[in-house]
Amino acid sequence: MDLKQQNVLFFSRTMGMGGTSNVMIQMCKILKPKVNKMVVCSTGGPMVKTLEEMGILHIQINDVGKHDPATFIKVINQISKIIEHEEITVVHTHHRMAAFYAAIVKKRHNFILINTSHNTFYNNKRITQFAYRNAKLIACGEMVKKNLVDYFGFNASQVTVIHNAIEKFDDEVVVDKTLKKLKEDGFYLVGNVGRFAEQKGMEYFIKSYPLIKKKTDRIKYILIGDGVDREKLESLVNQLGIQEEVIFLGFRRDVQNVLSQVDLLVLSSLWEGLPLTPIEGFSVGKTVVATAVDGTVEVVDDSKNGYLIPAKNSEKIAEKVLYLFEHPETQKQLEREAYRTFQNEFSFEKFSEKVLNYYEKC
Fold first, then answer.
1. What is the DSSP secondary structure assignment for residue 1, as one 8-state letter?
2. CA distance readout (Å), 136 to 97, 117, 200, 216, 234
3. Is residue 160 very low, low, confident or very high in pLDDT (cuts 50, 70, 90)?
């Protein structure tokens, strides 16, 4: 397609704190200078501010995750009006229900439908098949493509893998006072980044701390993020009596800046598509202890640039954290390979090239 003639609508459920929103922001950076118009619609969220800073129009819509008839009708009418008013030629969805609505509206309007799948799923099979049937599909990793082909039955030729990526962190480090004080006091800082929701397995990370405490009092856990499970996780920390050892930093837009100031990263997810968190860590030279789920194994090469462990296993988290705490030379070797992995496989430049090539071929 001739990109300069295209009016592109990115359509997702939210512009929240997760990896999906970050990938959308990256695609906006890549495509905005190349296309005629860029519009994003969602229910809103903290990343809307980033869109505003980029000069990209955000239109708030009803929650596509709700399944009641009133919301269904409202969303269809909203999307239809946006496509007509903004003269949209390409709709790029980043959520299954967004793709479902787009597939319905496509019967009224002529546009190219693209969907990026960010996770593996094993539910809502018929809805997903309807939503993606006439769409061009991008999978963020090989395991996500396998899920689309094996479980949902799509032809492999319909699905293109474009790995997620992260921009290189070239900014000057903005010192976080909390982390600085902990480092000055001699603590080894272990970070965990993500939405506070079931998928991220934060409770297993927290439950590993009492096992750490039996061996040393020189390690602190840093939780970076926010979400629906925040009160539940804070309650767990209080129940375990580790309020001084587990620090909640809250949601941060400067994740790479924060990660550059911790010693080690843990990814405790129960499932993932192709996670951004280890790539963010790799981009600032940090290694990771990660659960061996789905697309995570496409990023973390066990014992080469990090360690892979079973999901839902607090004992293994504690074991690997303690091992790296006690073996700094091993950690340095893993960190060097982690940064090399980022440069060779997950750089923003490679991602940008693949996204532009994909759009031009549509």
1. -
2. 16, 11, 29, 52, 42
3. very high
Question: What is the CA 242 to chain-centroid distance, rounded?
Answer: 28
141 CB contacts (<8 Å, ≥6 apart)? 161, 163, 164, 273, 274, 294, 295, 298
Closest CA to 277 of 190, 170, 164: 164
* Token duo for residue 14: 């939210």
Q: How many alpha carbons fall within 13 Å on the CB side of residue 205?
A: 31
- Residue 20: exposed, middle, or buried by beta-carbon count in 10 A (0-12, 13-18, 19+)? buried
Please, is 168 exposed, middle or buried when counting C-beta atoms within 10 Å of its C-beta (0-12, 13-18, 19+)?
Answer: middle
Per-residue model confidence (pLDDT) at position 218: 98
Domains of the chain in sequence order: 3-165+347-361 (3.40.50.2000), 177-345 (3.40.50.2000)
Task: Tell me how far apart the alpha carbons of residues 282 and 335 are, in angstroms, rounded to a whole number.
Answer: 7
**Would the pLDDT of 198 be above 80?**
yes
Q: Residue 110 corresponds to which amino acid?
A: N
The four Cα atoms 172, 177, 181, 182 give a dihedral, to 10 degrees, of -80
State the pLDDT confidence band at 61, using cuts at 50, 70 and 90: very high
Strand order in the sheet with 90-93: 57-60, 37-42, 7-11, 90-93, 112-117, 136-139, 159-161
